[in-house]
Design brief:
mainly alpha
Length: 197
């Protein structure tokens, strides 16, 4: 049985990216994996907001968090354009979203866990499961960084051999954009109050 690239990258990221680099690009659209990420974000929003999944809340969550894959695409585009690459941008972007596999797996497990909680249990933060959740979040953050580093080292390699620099640039653009989106929204409200608009 052939496992999907998302499953294989969880276990052996370097080998998976090497195989994907050696194989011809598939005919799939590069937007498919960003849409899967959005669907999972929408599902998580729906579960957190109401304790259940409803089509309206899932769609609302997908629209509200569309900026996440948008900033990921922008970060990847900036890194990609810095040097000549041996793969086309659409294929590189499709494989870049495969590197989200640790976060996708974590979010799916979180959603399954959350679906078994009552509303009272889900609002209680100071319990052992939430501390374990934070530890698991940190572990996934470390593993995700390693997977991304392997993507830039193996799949999107360049002549000067500096995958860490590409990783930092892509993450900086993405996270500055995401945090700026959240903080910027609040900033303009406070700014409007400050100037008495």
């Amino acid at each position: 049985m052939e496992w999907s690239p998302e499953v294989r990258v969880l276990v052996a990221p370097a080998r998976t990216f090497r195989e994907l680099a050696a194989s011809p690009p598939t005919a799939r659209l590069w937007v498919a994996r960003p849409l899967v990420l959005l669907l999972l974000l929408g599902t998580t929003v729906s579960l957190q907001a109401s304790g259940r999944m409803s089509a309206r809340l899932v769609l609302d969550g997908m629209i509200a968090f569309a900026f996440v894959p948008i900033f990921m695409v922008v970060g990847m585009a900036i890194v990609y354009r810095r040097r000549p690459r041996r793969v086309n941008f659409g294929h590189a972007l499709d494989v870049y979203f495969i590197a989200n596999a640790p976060w996708l797996a974590w979010a799916m497990l979180f959603d399954v866990w959350r679906s078994f909680l009552t509303p009272a249990e889900s609002s209680t933060m100071l319990t052992l499961p939430y501390y374990l959740l934070l530890v698991s979040f940190a572990a996934v953050a470390v593993w995700s960084t390693y997977v991304d580093l392997q993507f830039f080292r193996v799949f999107l390699s360049r002549e000067d051999g500096r995958p860490g620099r590409d990783l930092l640039l892509a993450r900086a653009v993405c996270w500055v954009g995401i945090i700026g989106y959240f903080v910027g929204h609040e900033f303009w409200e406070y700014f409007a109050l400050w100037i008495n608009v």
